[in-house]
Amino acid sequence: MKPSSRVWGSFRRERVRLWLLPIGAVAIAMAVIIAHAQFPVVDLVADAPGVGTLDQRYMIALPIGNEGTGTATNVQVTGVTFGSAPRLSPAAFPMPLGTIAPGGNAVFQADFDVTGLSQDGQYPLTVTGTFQINETTFGFTVTRSLGFPPASTGTGVTQTTMIPAEDSSNGVSAGNITEVDEPDDDNETAPVPVAPFFVGSQTPIITALQPTPFSGGDSNVSAVAFDTKESLNLTGQTDPAEPSVASGGGLVFLTFNWGAAYREDGDTTFTILNPKAMFPPHPYGVCCDQHVQYLPAPIDRFVWIQQLNSSDKSLGGAYRLAVASPSDIKKFKGQKAAWNAWVLKPDRFTQLNAKNQIVPMPQSNGFDFPTLAVGNKFLHISWDVNQTVGFEVLRIALSDLQAAPHNLPIRFVTNPAQSGGCTSNNSASCLAFSTVLTQDTGDEVFWAGHNGNSKLRVFNWAEDSNAYHWREVGIDSFTPAHSRGSSAHTPSNAPSPILQYTGPKALPSSNDWLYRGGGAGAIRGATRSGSKIYFAWNADPGGTIPQSHVEVAEIDISTYTKSNQGQIWNDKFAFAFPSLSTNACTGEIGVSLAYGGGAKYPNHAVGFWGDSTFYPTTDGSVTGSSYGDYVTIRQNHTSGLHGAYFDAVGYAIQKLSSAGSGSPLTKSEVSIDIRHVVFGRSGACAGGS
What stretches of 69-166 adopt beta strand conformation (E)? Predict the structure, then answer.
């Protein structure tokens, strides 16, 4: 049987099933083959590989997944080739992968010396092996074509597009959020290959938790003060919440999966908005990921990006970018009349085709995982263009957003594969994917991804330039996190009761609150502070750190070298999903993240990078296996706080008093407690922002 390929979900999987007859068991094997033709038993596929380069060493971490209904036991790799490149590792075969359950995968890594291969070439990766069903052994072969990431250092070009304003004449009345489906965004990232370890010289300092010091008047510059701590409790809402928050102009605006809310100064509760009902009906409806930013005076606007999808699968996904002044949000009670909006569709952007020609993206290309960052003159936006294209970055002049409504000029990267560090045939192997842009980014925006576990590929795009650049920066080695379903995934089990998930794409109900993996090590936090940029990501236990934790790397952009690297960790529970921001005057880094495991339920906490203490903001009493892909933190723009404070938002799941005593609990038996906090060092910016 020859290898075949198909489109599966948001990325391409290449697959083959070779059923080899075991010696002396022909009749048994024939019976299995016949049964397999009608009811697939084991269906091994080559999923999206992670790649990395270290001089002439090319590292390929290939997840081998099982799309069948039966379990493959005693899976072993017996051989691997990549074109004509000599193999560096594994040194010998067979290489055991263990058991691969239905829907699961095992990661196999092979390294090659690619001295004789062309940087622009594409070569077949072929893996052979065996597995067992009921102690009967069968053979398999999985293969896929693979190229190389763009060479480093490098430069990419950008171009412009024009987005027409959304027609609001067919708007609908806003209403309550009555329809809540399971989120169908699935920004799974490829595994990070493991390079020969380089151990840093720093001794990790354990991170403790202590009760939140709610105080608005602490004059001690070194103390952490909390000016605001408020909840938005939602019942019947899907986990994860994936919240985002911003403040300014006498308002707090908050978004979460499927919905949004705002609160005026002086209000004691949030007003909930339903974007699915607010905006005009057209082929796209509001789906899942959302972010909000505030653009300070003189722009004085909230910017809200909403992920859209369509029941027509030929249309893929899109984004709505909505802009409103605080005064209009107050005047129109947050409804559609307050907002100017544009729909960003795939065919308004470009990609490279098989002939290396720039062509419009097909409408079917899916968008996922948006982020927003505010610079001196531009709003910067990024998103994933499914795993066969790359990572899109664009910018919009702040003055154009202030002058809305009109056709909106946008400049964007011409080749998302380059800006994501994807392999040359766009085969889902991207170094920077599901990453975020630097917050508080000034005159230049940055993003990064992992080139193996000992280097970052760092991208930069200056606001006075139409070209962007990339280069490699060495970091201390870390143990990469692995995504859900992988036999290499490290669970972080928290207490019961657990939440039950339903629907065709439902995750398993589990005590493992990190089951989704947090993007398998993708950069989840990024910010700029003067001549330093900071990147943060999830990592698995390794070395002296026994729990899943957060790694933070500080990069000096005057030399593009690592100036510091550290961890946020504890020996009793896990930290994950870091988000970073920088305050207005001292350049100190605020952190918003999640923690859980051991005796602790999944919860949200905040603190400062470099401190050894973080402060819980929620009090969860239920464990979910889908905490999400992100929480957020933004520089606070309340005038009286002088820029020293941050807005941060996270969430926890709480059991309702009416719930039963069993486990798992349904979503009707829990509430999602989205918690907004304002915190900072109250004396730090007393001279003004």
Answer: 72-82, 87-89, 95-100, 105-113, 123-133, 136-146, 154-163
Alpha carbons within 13 A on the beta-carbon side of 194: 15
- Strand-strand pairing, 444-450 and 455-462: antiparallel
Same domain, 170 and 98: no
Which range of residues forms the domain containing residue 109? Answer: 4-148
Q: Distance between CA 305 and CA 370 in Å, rounded?
A: 8
Closest of 298, 304, 436 to residue 377, by C-alpha: 298
Beta bridge partners of 235: 671
The reply to whether 335 falls in a domain is yes
**How many Å apart are CA 420 and CA 415, to the nearest integer?**
9
The model scores a pTM over 0.85: yes
Contact (Cβ atoms closer than 8 angstroms) between residue 324 and residue 288 = no
CATH number for 128: 2.60.40.1230
* Mean pLDDT (whole number) for 366-383: 95
- How far apart, in whole angstroms, are the C-alpha atoms of residue 15 and residue 7? 11
Domain stops at, among 148, 172, 187: 148
211 shares its domain with 89: no
Average pLDDT value for residue range 9-34: 38
387 and 525 part of one domain: yes
Question: How far, in Å, CA of 686 to CA of 689, rounded?
Answer: 8
Q: In this structure, are 559 and 631 located in the same domain? A: yes
Residues 503 and 377 in one domain: yes
How confident is the model at residue 358, as a pLDDT? 83
**Backbone phi and psi for residue 592, each to the nearest 5 degrees, phi listed first:** -120, 130
CA torsion, ordered 113, 116, 119, 125, to nearest 10 deg: -60
More confident residue, 347 or 22: 347
Q: Which residue has the higher pLDDT, 461 or 221?
A: 461
Residue where one domain finishes, among candidates 109, 127, 148: 148
Q: Domain for residue 686, yes or no? A: no
Burial class (CB in 10 A: 0-12, 13-18, 19+), 688: exposed
pLDDT at 507: 81
Q: Rounded CA gap, 401 and 315, in Å? A: 27
Q: What is the pLDDT of residue 262?
A: 97
Domain-embedded: residue 560: yes
Mind giving me the DSSP string for 217-257?
Answer: ----TTS-EEEEEEEEEEESPPSP---EEEEETTEEEEEET
Residues 197 and 127 in one domain: no
Q: Residue 479 corresponds to which amino acid?
A: T
> Any idea which residue has 């952490």 for tokens?
224
CATH number at residue 385: 2.130.10.10
* Cα torsion 573, 548, 385, 49: sign: negative
Confidence category of residue 313, pLDDT binned at 50, 70, 90: confident
> What mean pLDDT comes out for the span 187-194?
83
Sheet holding 561-568, edge to edge: 523-529, 532-539, 549-556, 561-568
pLDDT above 50 (res 179): no
Average pLDDT, the chain: 86
302 plus 188 within the same structural domain: yes
Residue 602 contacts residue 620 (beta carbons within 8 Å): yes
* Phi, psi torsion values for 522, nearest 5 degrees: -60, 150
Looking at the structure of the chain, the number of domains it has is 2
Q: Is residue 353 part of a domain?
A: yes
**Do 98 and 240 belong to one domain?**
no
Q: For 545-560, how does the pLDDT look when each residue is reduced to its tens digit (9 = 90+)?
A: 999 999 999 999 999 9
